[in-house]
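Good day; I would like, with your permission, to put a structural problem before you. What I wish to show you is a protein chain and, alongside it, a tokenised description of its three-dimensional fold. Please examine both parts with care and let me know of anything in them that strikes you as inconsistent. Thank you for your consideration; the sequence and its tokens are set out here:

***
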Amino acid sequence: MKPLLYLILSVGFAAALTFAAPEFYLTMLVYIGLSAIVCFGLVLLTGICGLTSFGQAAFVGLGAYASAVATTELGVSPWIGLVLAIVLTGLSGLLIGFLTLQLSGHFLPLGTIAWSVSLYLVAGNLQSIGGHTGLTGIPPLSIGAHQISSAREFLPLVLISVAATAWSCRNILDSRTGRALRAINGRSIMAEAMAVDTFRYKMVVFIYAAVLAGFSGWLYAHFQRFINPTPFSLHMSIEYLFMIVIGGLSSVGGAIAGAAIVTLLHHWLGDLLPRLLGQSGQFETIVFCVITVLFLRYLPGGVWPMMARLVPRYGTGKSPPVLLEDDAVLPAPCAGVAREDGQLKPLLQVNSIRKEFGGLVAVNDVNFGVKGGQIVALIGPNGAGKSTMFNLITGVLNPTGGEVRLEDRRLDRLSSKEIAQLGIARTFQHVKLLDDRTVVENVAIGAHRFGRSGFIRSALRLDRADEAQLLARSANALKLTGLGELAGRLSGQLSLGQQRIVEIARALALGPRILLLDEPAAGLRHQEKEQLARLIRRLQESGMTILLVEHDMAFLMNLAEHIVVMEYGCKIAEGTPAEIQGNQRVLEAYLGVA
């Protein structure tokens, strides 16, 4: 069965339901659709981006009340109410996101809980909008002179809305924006090092999720034609989270499946449990909690991945990336090394850099330079401060004193994203890849800064030409590293050595002037190390400057032109490989005085 046939069957099934199903079941389908729209936003926000929100029901309520008050008190059209609902939820999402997304840990969940509780209390205590009694007389939606007054007529509108929002979310995930959102989840340091503006993307996805919730609230208000604060409480926000956990945290289809399962269970258990127990109460909430715990324990991916495995797949729908010319991976800044008086001019300069963590001095007034076109190694025993130095150069850490310069530009005052945009790329001591994405998608995160399509263009699928260029650049970087044939493999299926090479390809896709490699040979076999050494020399021949940290001395001595040695945060030696090998202090640092 081909995808087009699936679409035709789905439309036919929906049409049959609309005309033949009883009104009660149509009403249930409307509620499932409204919940699914909210869950689409949560999939992007929580499942993909890793930001937990307990305030989605409050955004639903704000959208519902905005349109309800506007249509009942001001007499405007429900379609004008839609504009008000979207504007108010978007602005509130902007405000709450700005106040909480810059913080880490538990602050966002606590902030959204406070938002949810406060809106519930405000709506319940304002008698001008009905208080806890509720607001009645909300007009139905109308198209021309025809009023949509029944579930049978309302369901097609909901199905179209669900299909449109699902399509937009799917497009976002299959784009430069989607890769950025995935990279943010637990890997913000890596994302910033690849020139991804993590705060901006968090804000955009938070606002988008709020707007989807507000849109769902608008539909709810004009379908129900009566609202009170109860459906918009913190309890309902938790239920939305139940839906995406049960359906599948990171899948658009899981939002629909979870909304259907929870909505139907809520109805069935609400009828069944009081009969079995002989008394009324919110017993279904207890059952939901138990079900959620069981899903987290035994089916953490939700039901959608299990359902998707039962459906035949006919490819991803993507064409293979078209390779660019070989030299396209290395942009103009890599060529033409600056010289001064016939000598190589320092490209990167570290001046008296110092980093203190409380009373611990991790880097102690270190000075060294990296000349353009050079391969420089930074070595030292474990705990010498090498990785801290990398983090100071790339903006992950702010120095306590001193400065880092790229030619005449100070870097120590810039963020990781800004430093990456200047052409400083890095790999990491511990591999930071998206294991559930393909190799070429991981490398494309490095090409992020060359893309121009934003959130809206991605959602509307207007980014295809831009996306093709980014994937082509990424495929070319893989070809350069010798892993071109693995472009379609999942990164989690590769060996550690291959994953380290993928990280180098990702850094190359950023188009660096300086490449910082943090223990690139760790975990590689002898043949892979030889391949890596050839790659590094080829990059140097193209004009690229390379600074690397490595513990394999045999690998370094045949590769680096200049070596800087650190111990306990201090620089203890600097020179050519021959000079370092004969330095007594270096030998003592590595082998001990005895």
Summary: Residues 325-338 have pLDDT under 50 and may be disordered. The longest strand covers residues 346-357. The radius of gyration is 29 Å.
